[in-house]
Every structure is written in structure tokens, then in C-alpha cells.
Amino acid sequence: MVKYSYLRKRSDSLLNKSLIEDTLTAALSTGGDFAEIFVEDRTNNGIVMIGGKVESTVSGRDYGVGIRIFKGFNSVYAYTNKSDRETLIDTAKKAAKALTGKNLNLTINLTKADVKNINPIRIDPSGVEKTKKVQVMKKAYDTAFNYDELITQVTVSYTDYTQNIMVANSEGLWKEDTRVRSRLGISSVASKNGEMQSGFFGPGASRGYEFFEDLDIDYYAKEASRIALTMVNAKYSPGGRMPVIIDNGFGGVIFHEACGHGLEATSVAKGLSVFAGKIGQQIASPLVTAIDDGSIPNQWGSYTIDDEGTQSQRNVLIDKGILKGYMVDKLNGRRMNMDVTGSSRRQSYRFPPTSRMSNTFIDKGNLTPEEIIANTERGLYARYMGGGSVNPSTGEFNFAVMEGYIIEKGKIKEPVRGATLIGKGTEVLNKIDMVGNNLDQGQGMCGSVSGSIPANVGQPMIRVSELTVGGREGGL
Amino acid sequence: MDVKSLIDKIFQKGREKGLSDMEVYYASGTSLSLKVFQKDLDTYNLSESEGLSLRGTYKGKMGYSYTEKADEASIEQLVRDVKENATITDSEDEEVIFEGSKEYKRVNNFNPDLSEIGEEEKIEFVKELEEEAFKADERIASVQACVYGDGMGEIVLSNTKGLFLEDKSNIAYTYISVVAKEGEDIKTGLAYRTGNDFSKFKAKEIAREAVEEALALLGASPVKSGDYKVIIRNSAAADLLEAFTGIFSAEAVQKNLSLLKGKLNEKIASSVFTLVDDPYMEGGLASRSFDGEGVACKYKKVVDKGVLKTYLHNLKTAKKDGVETTGNAGKGSYKSSIGISPSNFYVEKGERDLNQMMADIDKGILITELQGLHSGLNSISGDFSLAALGFLIEGGKISRPVDQITVAGNYFEMLKDIEETGSDLKFGLPGGAYIGSPSLRIKKLSIAGE
């Protein structure tokens, strides 16, 4: 195994100064007041193992350049896979054609800024032999499959990538960054009497191969199988309105969907979010403090600089129920007359960046999980959540409960399957009436206008006094 | 370097490094997208892109790799990765490079007229689309998204067994999402069109459709929880089918990930349910003459009057089952390995329209939209529990709009409970496949609301 204290950079492919300047100048030739160039060179490794056998392995290199121009509130974006002088100048000119105006003759003085990586990496995954990666997967497979005889299939996916980016703009910003991420996905299926249920766990981090070496693979593999097994033995969830307790970690997807997307400038700037124009107002229960923080070292949703070159930071979105701020990118910041918050992200050079979440969580409260459950007469306990979605205009959200239980007289009773939680963001935030002290985060992929990006969701255990539960049986 | 000589160079490098059979999948394309906000063309995006993948066998196993940069160093890396990836693959199922089908039926996915449309005309169209939405009703508070886009793509599939296939296609799309407001009540409505005939995009008609969707839902409220007779309207039924498409994949069946295992020639659905995969369908946006492995595509009924006739196969799964491939090898992009994908995939339509289908329902729910399809369902168990929007049906017709409800059931059970398919076959947005359904009347599903 090869170890690197610093990652190798393909700086040769990330363009030289005069080419960047000439491209930006060409982009501004028709009256644009801001131009930006983004270069991405990314190596991907993906391995899928089904039934203990490596089924497919795909690796590859993504490479492309994106050029963005602003004029007031209008934006133009163009991308190409080529990085020769002729193509870049030509692409910049083609993009500029979309604007009509007089060249403002802006002077471009690029200064390369040093970027200190907040996500230190010990072992470059590209330097690790794939047979080692397969051993990690086999270990996860064996543990998950041998968990119980009702486990009939286990799929393990391995992913690592190294994304080198460069961003430069007409205001003189010029930065490079390297993002390394690693993730293991374990999906178990349990079968009984012709029925199948599945359980999933997918830990990930902004770390190198050391992430897999340090990971408690047995724990996650057993959890995936335990969930599948519990659910195949569960009856259908009741439906209707009832108190719901959502446990910590990935449970934070409720805030992500119910509120987070509505706090992205992407929907706030144009007045399309239910939270637009509400800074300083009470929008949630006083028990709720919510934070988006892309600067936590090595977390899955962390990054040193965002895709516009702004340093990531901790943004308090809601403080004791009062709306404090949004997640703001450069373009929407113009419309909103607000500063950027280091939140501008994109899946790849194929997307112009926009404000997105990073690691988003409800901060911890005072109650122990035991207290919250003991104080609930009846309701649903969602131990693990699946994914969800939201319509930011109406605030209507939905998400799936992967592992749920009935609560009766302050005790966790039998497991239930197939529950979905629905509601409106503005309502649910006010109905959070208990917040636990066991804050944790979980990993997910978040899909929106600028593509699919890694994001953490998090929270301690919370209780929502009343929520609509979608299930197949009658009310509790 | 032209594509042919680039491919030759890759094959040569591969042979030097000990790869036996090899195949290159090359894709290139251009795209344009325009977005209007408050009469202003506020987003203008364009692209020119290419990428290629190599798959090849090394010691009998298949490896994959791709690149978006086609320089010398990348080709070296490409070949090295294929070799390493093949080495760690230990699937017992043999994956082969195909020498070609006897015959390929022509499919015309390219409309030269679309490339002739000037940019001005497109900008004018998308501005008109937004304007028509505001004109349609004063309760339209904003237009969330108003977009026109088009693109052109070419793929080349070439292998060392002598196969060389090309395909060229273009497509245009437009969509509008409007926000209607009445008091504190906010509802959104969406309408879209896809295809490569720009002349069929009528701004007024599309805008009105979105506006009507939103307005019809104003004043919605939940219904009481319980079991209801349900009609899932065409577009929502197509979305649901799309989410469960994987159950028909032979790969899923062989890996014990589909409950349709062992059900060939058995009744898995009601007799009114016939499911077709037609790669040559007139106007189909997933029409193709060859699949991701270069095999000629063919028409097939996957489910005929409720009986499961075949799974969807590629060469690997067909060999394992001892059958012929159905020409459904999927290759999502040059970045993906060979999987399984339908083409134009739809439920055959029935006789009566939506109003007639409602006429004999005393009390039921018409579902017009399902939400959370990527999370609220389990394609392995078939269980679904989804947020839904729609209308209450009373006395044979719509009585009021409904929101904040969920509809729950099991897809495998639901297939058996289909009482009727409507005459209103509609297709969703095209992806790797183009999936359609008429409205479906279901005997009973669980609704949770109040």
C-alpha cells in the first residue's frame, strides 16, 4: 500500500494563468459583469458485490470545464470536456453571445490563494489495490449474510473518488481544492413466506482509504441485516395522525426535507419558498436550533471551499425557533442582497452551482431518549428513516420510515413496516415538542437543481406532537 | 483524432496489454437549455461533451473503465483499469462481447427540422409560455420554473468482433411549474412536453394545463383514513410503474431480488393488465434498433392478460436461464456497466375514458400525483406508502380536491386488483426508458389522512 501525506494533484490539467485570464476576458466580451471558470478532474472507483461475488467494477475519469457569466441577475453557463486554448476561448465566446451589451473592460488580476484542506487524508484510495477494497466488501457481506438464516441476499457497494477542482473568477479569485470521499453501502434482504424486506446502511466520510480501515464494518453489516429481519417479521403500520418520535442520525432527514430545502437561496431568492421574507420571525418551536456546517473536518458533506471558491463555514439557520439566515450562493445573493455563505455546490462541471446543504442538523437538547419515549402515551417510533422529498413552494414533504415501532404507554412495542410521514414544513417545525441529547449524523445523497451531492443530515431524538402517518392499517 | 482511429488506438493498446475481446462505447452530444423568470431570460446553458468507455475481457472476466479525456495518458489508464477491474471480478455469470445480430431494423430518432429552429424562436416560445400562465388566471402567484431545452446525441458501439453500430438522436423538452395562491392556500401545477417536433409545442395549451392542475387543487383537504376504491390517473400510474420496473429484470430475478422469481407463465396480474416493451413504437422516445450490447431489439409482451410471459434479458442473464436475450441490455451512459432496461414500456390501454371510469364509483379517490417515489416504496417487497394529491369521487364524479394523504399498498397485490385500464395512455418524462400507462382503477387501497 502506498501512503501519501499530500495528495498528488494533476495541476497540469487544471489550466495555466494566461489561459484562465484569456477565457474570462472572452466571456466578458459582451457586457457580462462577472465571469467564472471551473475545472474538474475526478477519478471514480465503484465496485458492486452481490451474493459475495464481485459483480461489476467501474472506474473512470471525469474531466470538464464550466464557464459561467453573470449580467445583473441573469446567468449563462457552458461546459465542455476539452481544455485546449481554442475550445475554451470558443466556448466562452459562444456563451457570451447569449448576452448583449457593451464590454465593461473589467481588469482581471488573478492571485492564486493557498487553500488549507480541512479534510486531511491519510491514505490516497487511488494508491490502494482493489483486492484490498474487495476484502473490505467481503467482510461486510459475510457478516451481513451470516446474521440470520432468513437473510437471503446481500448487496455491498464500494465507492471512492478523488475530485480535483480549480475555480477562478474575474474578481481575481483563483483556488484549487481536492476532495476525497469514501463510502460503503450494505443492503440486506430477508425473506419469509414469499415476502421480502430490506435493510440498508451506508456510512461515508470525506476521508481516504483509512475510513474503511477504521470503520466498524461488523456493526453496520449487522444493523442492515437486523433491520431487514425485523421488518420481515413486522406487521403493517397503522395510518392516521399521531405523535411521532424520530431517532437520531439519519432521522435528521426530516429537517432536511421539511425545512432545509426551503432555506436554500435557490428557492428563497425568487420568493418561491414558504420561508422567504421571514428572517427574524419565529418559524419553529423554541426547542429547535438548526445549523448547516460544511466546515466540520472529514464529514461526508464537508468541503474546504465551495464550488465558487468560498471557504465553507458554520451557518446558524434557526436559533431557538427564530429564522436567522439562509444558505446563499453568489447569483441568488445578488437578487437577495445578501452575502454568500459558502454553500454553493454542484454534482460536477455539468451543472452550474447553486446554494445547497452540506451537513445539516438540529442541535442537541436536554432530554434523554429514555425520557422522551417514557413520556409518550402512544405513537410511532421511527428508529431509522429512509429518504424523502419536498415541494419548497407548498412546503409539503414526505419521507419513508425504514424501521418503525408502535409506542404504547411509554414503551416501545411491536415493529411496523411501510410507514410514511407526510406534512408541511411550517407546521412540523412548530410541533417539535421534545428534543433529545443524543445528536448524531447520517450520510445521504441529496438531489436537486445542481445535481446529486453528498450531504449529511443529523439530529438528536425528537418528538413531533402530531404528524400524518401513512400506513395500511387503521388508526392507533 | 476522429472516433474510428481513436477506437483503433484503444484496441491496439488493449491487445498489447493482454486484453482479448474489447468494446468501446462512445457518446457525444450538444445541449441547450433556456429558463425564463419574470419575462427575463435568466438562465442560458449550453454544452458540448463526449466520453467513452472500454470494456474488455481479461482471463475470461469482464472489466470496465471510462474517460472524458481522450489523451495518451488517459488511454493508458483506461486499459490498465479494465485489466485490474477484470481481475477482481469473480461473478460466475459469463459476460461476452457480441458479434452482431443478423439484421437491424432502422429507427429514426433524428429530426433534422429541430436543428433548423433558431434560438430566437426558442426564446420567444419559452417567454410566451410564462406569459400565458400568468394570463390564464389571476390566482397564479408565480412561475417556479419555465424551461425549454433541446439536445443532440450520437453513440458509437464498436468491438473487436467486428461490430460497428451508430445511432443519432435529438430531442426537445419543455416544462412549466406554476404556483397558485388563494388566501393562505398554495398549490403547484406542472405540465411538460417532450419529442423532437418543435411545432407540437403549443405555449398556451401547455401553460393552461399547468394552471388548471394547480387551480383544481386549491381548497384541498385530507379525507378520513380508510380503504377506498382508487383510480390512479395515467401519469401517476406511469410513475409508479417506472419505480417498479426493476422487478421485471432477469438480473433481479436471478439474484433473488425480485418476487417475480419462479412466476413465468403464471398469472401475476388481473386479466385487464397487458405490459408491452416496444422498441419500435411510433413516437416512442426510447426507440432503438440495438441495445447496450449491440443486440437487435424486439417487440414483446412482458405480461399478457395478466400472465407473466418473459423477464427482460441481456446476453448474460439469457445465457444463465438458457433462453434468448430479449434485447434489453441497458447502458445508461458510458459511465455504467451493462445492466437491464426496457425501451418504450407501457400498459396497454382499455376502452373507457377517465370520466366513464369514475361514473360507477359511489365513493373513491382519484390520485393525480404520487410523491416520494424514490423513498416511499420498496421494489423488493412491493410495499409502497406514498404522499398523494388528487380528488374525492362521490356519486360517480369529482366532488372536491384532496391533499395531505398517503396511499399505501403492495404493488404485487395491486396488479391483481386492477379492475379496469383507461383509454388515456400517457407517457412520463423519458430517461433510459420511456414508460407509459393509462389510468388504472384499483379495487382497494389504504388511504391515511385525518
What would your notes on this structure say?
The complex is a heterodimer of chains A (476) and B (450). Chain A has helices spanning 17-27, 85-96, 130-145, 210-214, 217-232, 253-258, 265-268, 330-336, 369-374, 425-430; strands at residues 34-50, 53-71, 74-80, 111-112, 151-169, 173-192, 195-201, 204-205, 235-236, 240-246, 290-293, 314-319, 322-323, 344-345, 354-355, 359-362, 378-391, 396-408, 411-417, 420-424, 432-435, 440-448, 451-459, 462-470. Chain A has 476 residues and is an alpha+beta fold. Chain A has 2 domains: 17-232, PmbA/TldD superfamily (PmbA/TldD fold); 235-470, no CATH class. In chain A, strands 1, 2, 3, 4, 5, 6, 7 and 8 form an 8-stranded mixed β-sheet that branches. Chain A has a 6-stranded mixed β-sheet with strand order 13-12-11-16-23-22. A 5-stranded mixed barrel of chain A has the order 10-17-18-20-24. In chain A, helix 1 (17-27) packs parallel to helix 2 and helix 3 runs parallel beside helix 5. Mean pLDDT of chain A is 93; it is low at 1-11. Chain B is α+β, with helices and mostly antiparallel strands and 450 residues long. Chain B folds into 2 domains: 3-217, PmbA/TldD superfamily (PmbA/TldD fold), CATH 3.30.2290; 226-448, no CATH class. Chain B contains 10 helices and 20 strands. Chain B has helices at 3-16, 72-88, 112-116, 119-136, 203-217, 234-243, 250-254, 315-321, 354-359, 411-416; strands spanning 22-37, 40-58, 61-67, 140-159, 164-182, 185-195, 226-232, 275-277, 300-304, 307-308, 329-330, 339-340, 344-347, 363-371, 383-394, 397-410, 418-421, 426-427, 434-437, 440-448. Chain B has a 6-stranded antiparallel β-sheet with strand order 3-2-1-4-5-6. Chain B is globular and about 75 Å long. Strand 2 (53-71) of chain A pairs parallel with strand 3 of chain B, so a sheet runs across the interface.
